[in-house]
Here is the input.
Amino acid sequence: MIVLDQQAIAARIDFDVVAAAVEDAYRASSAGDMVLPPVGYIEFAEHAGDCHVKYGYQRATEIFVVKVAAGFPGNDPAVAPANNGASLVLSAVTGEVLALLHDKMLMTDIRTGIGGAIASRTLARADAKNLLVVGTGVQAHQQIRAHRALLPRVSDIRVWGRSPEKASAVAAGEEGVQAAADLADACAWADLVVTVTAAREPIIADGWITGGTHITAVGADAPGKHELDPQLLRRADRLVADKLDQCLDHGELSALSAEEAADAVELGSVLAADATARTTDAEITIADLTGIAAQDIAIARAVLDHHG
Here is the structure.
């Protein structure tokens, strides 16, 4: 059995290889080539923590992956990190455990950033250059870096957080990024908005978003989480989900009725040109990303297949 710690995993991650693998995984998921059971979720309310268990496999391949990702943001860093977890890679032929990837959420963080940038690249206007990141955690950094890598047309980036100090810290850690003082003004300025918070009440109001804006919503990854005003979802011209049934269960789309979400499509279908993205520069488009096991399979395979 192969055992890799976070440092060894980081050395095996090639951003371009992982980005291509994640994009392929979205297509495979929407084409029905992936077996992706419902997500396991445990909330530890007394400790303000939670745990996600995602698992699945790609048909006609010889491995499957089980990922456990735990987040306890209130942890004292001197005692334990806020994020932890690991992926088990097993044989889909014999059930044998082939690898333990103790990444402490590194692979999840990277594949989530890449997934957000892929959605933005696919759905935003071709001339979109003003990026607003809403949130100040690890994922704010990942989204900034992934968007810069996959959307070179993005030239101006601002970050907003409920804590101005944390927003300033994110901006200071990313070259050329500025902290935004007012969220409504920043939304009006942005061509492209990425939300990466743990909000349980909408923080992006319907009236703040104008025609032509794209939103990639990443934070609503568990029951009870919402970042977007439901009326904004209803007003959007195109709703796109990483996995429709999952987003309807616990993503932003869960705020809508089945009828209201009837025209939503999957990101993999758009990438495969089986569904349309935006049709005009005036449309509002929203990507609801809850994170799918197909991404975890893709990055785990890329790490194990790395030759360097």
In short: The mean pLDDT is 96. DSSP finds ten helices and 15 strands in the chain. The longest strand covers residues 49-58. The first helix runs from residue 6 to 12.
